[in-house]
Amino acid sequence: MKHTKKDWVLAGLTGASLAVILLLLAVLLGQIAWHGAPVISAEFLTARPGADMISGGIWPAIYGTVFMTLLMTLAGVPVGIATAIFLTEYASPRSKMAKLVRIAVNNLAGVPSIVFGLFGLGFFIIFVGGSLDALLYDDPRPVWGKPSILWASLTLAVLTLPVVIVTTEEALRQVPSELRDASLALGATRFQTVYKIVLPNAKGGILTGVILAVSRGAGEVAPIIFCGAANFLPYLPTDLRDMFMHLGYHVYALATQSPNVDAARPTLFGTVLVLLVLTFSLNLLAVIIRSRSRAALRP
Amino acid sequence: MNESADVVADARVKMKTRDVNIFYGDNQAIKDVSLDIAARNVTALIGPSGCGKSTYLRALNRMNDTIDGCRLEGKILLDGEDIYAREVDPVEVRRRVGMVFQKSNPFPKSIFDNVAFGLRIGGEKDKDLIAQRVEESLRGAALWDEVKDRLQSSALGLSGGQQQRLCIARCLAVWPEVILMDEPASALDPIATAKIEELIRELRERYTIVIVTHSMQQAARVSDFTAFFFMGKLVEHGKTDMMFTRPSKKRTEEYISGRFG
After folding, report:
1. Per-residue pLDDT averaged across B119-146, rounded?
2. Judgement on whether residues A23 and A136 belong to the same structural domain of the protein
3. pLDDT band for position A52 (cuts 50, 70, 90)
4. Quick check: B63 pLDDT over 80?
5. Do B156 and A298 touch (CB under 8 A)?
6. What residues of chain B, 86 to 105, have a C-beta less than 8 Å from chain A?
7. Angle CA(A150)–CA(A153)–CA(A155) in degrees, nearest 5?
8. Are residues A71 and A140 in the same domain?
9. Banded pLDDT at B5 (limits 50, 70, 90)
10. Phi, psi of B237 (to 5 degrees)
11. Are A88 and A21 within one domain?
12. Residues A146 and A262 reside in one and the same domain
């Protein structure tokens, strides 16, 4: 194929923008790795932070992040997948209700994350938690109606819901309708068709979407500021009503609330590195699952 | 209209449709079709594209139920029972009236699991029985000798013709009474097509078969009765050899002789 002048210009422009992006990414990651790596040690990963937040380790923040992410996944993912199954497999394409749900989901995806934080505070903590306290206890001290890992996880579950719904719907739609027809024509019920044919064939796509949503949720800070993340907590959360430390929030606290910002910098970079490694491994897992499930569909 | 009943007079009637009208939203796809389908015979539905023959076929096992906005009036009887009656479960209808589609659609599973699917979802747990029915169905679809050594490999590794015969085997495994075929050979080469046609001739010994086809020659080769559809109406229904030699309607003659369509 002959390349005209225009082709070269276009190739140059797209190549240049790619280079800019790669450069930015390299600088960003390089900085973090360069400053963060020296701090990483067994102690840093397993010890509790010192009273100044700079010395010691970040184990409670790692633990809190993983715990919160698990709770968030358990709470949000099943609901999201079920919603997507309803929208693609059960709702009629012309149903007004399905249309409304889809619009709502898309709007939900566009809401700034800090608004989710306010929602969590208002709905989960004050309304749900407060009502539980009023119903169950006479004590004016709040038991449920205060920030905790439970409410933070639920808030993040709501935040990740649109991503789970949209990617699951996409994955379900990729399953050829011929397979549904074949299953129904053999006398399968709609539920059997979804369970035995549609879901197994969409599994890879669904898992990929779920992991991407989870990795996004794991790194979010804004929604949990009001809902349960603690600045500094000398113990690990053992109860759903405990507050918790979080890697992202720890970074925020170190960067803005440390009395000695310069001294905090290595710890800061170390924490960022750990958070990045965690979310990157989730993303990597998503890529592996996706390529495996694609391979499985081939003969 | 009893013309149709006369046509199949000497054969037992397996399915009867009376004044069937089918609508997609406001569009009427099938108009007042009354047709008798003879048991253990092959009935071919022919007609130009868009004449409604596939829509009609899909009504015979309630596959149209899955299409949004599709509505049916009239009666479709299977052994005298109205399959559209309120108390009838479409799932039951589809177990008795199986379907083979235009594009072969094996599940991305092993050959064995494809054929066993219908039995398993029907609640069959007995492994020996399943294995036996799988073999019997694959033999019935003339595929056993080609796949007996690789039952556990993916069905997607089969050729187009083999995949279509696998779909037929999958359909046979649930012991249907009627098999509907929607242009089952239209995507296949002449050799694979010949195998499918031979198979249809064999299957007619045990099953009632309704086949939609675009090919006049195919209809002539495989069917005992032919129904000619035009613009959503049943124009003529008769014994295939009669229809192809002495059609009674002018339109049928024009279509069969290739003047339109």
Report:
1. 95
2. no
3. confident
4. yes
5. yes
6. 91-92, 94-95, 98-99, 101, 103, 105
7. 110
8. yes
9. low
10. -135, 130
11. no
12. yes
Helices (H), B87-178: 90-96, 111-121, 127-140, 144-147, 160-172
CATH class belonging to B3-256: alpha beta
Same-domain status, A12 and A155: no
Residues A33 and A66 in one domain: no
CA atoms in the 13 A half-sphere facing the CB of A51: 0
Q: How much is the pLDDT for A296?
A: 63
Q: Write the DSSP assignment of A80-118 as a string of letters.
A: HHHHHHIIIIIS-TT-HHHHHHHHHHHHHHHS-HHHHHH
**Does A78 share its domain with A220?**
yes
Tokens 């609508």 correspond to B23
Q: What is the mean pLDDT of residues B2-30?
A: 83
Residue B46 CA to residue B229 CA, distance in Å, equals: 6
With beta carbons under 8 A apart, name residues in chain A contacting B154.
299
> Is B94:A185 a contact under the CB 8 Å cutoff?
yes
Kindly determine whether residue A187 and residue B95, on different chains, have CB atoms separated by under 8 Å.
Answer: yes
What 8-state DSSP symbol labels residue A8?
Answer: H
CB distance B63–A197 less than 8 Å? no
Residues of the domain holding A1: 1-39
Beta carbons of A186 and B94 less than 8 Å apart: yes
Residues of B in contact with A178 (CB under 8 A): 101, 103, 105
- pLDDT, tens digit (0-9, with 9 covering 90-100), for B69-90: 899 999 999 999 999 999 999 9
Per-residue pLDDT reduced to its tens digit, A3-51: 788 889 999 999 999 999 999 999 999 999 999 999 899 989 998 888 8
Domain residue limits, chain B: 3-256
Structure tokens at A6: 């225009």
Domain count, chain A: 2
Q: How far apart are CA A166 and CA A170, in angstroms?
A: 6
The answer to whether the Cβ–Cβ distance between B108 and A181 falls below 8 Å is no
Rounded Cα distance, A40 and B205, in Å: 77
Query: CA-CA distance, A233 to A58, in Å (whole number)?
Result: 11
Digit-coded pLDDT (tens) for A84-120: 999 999 988 888 999 999 999 999 989 999 999 999 9
Query: A285 and A137 in one domain?
Result: yes
Least confident of A3-7, A104-108, B108-112, B231-235: A3-7
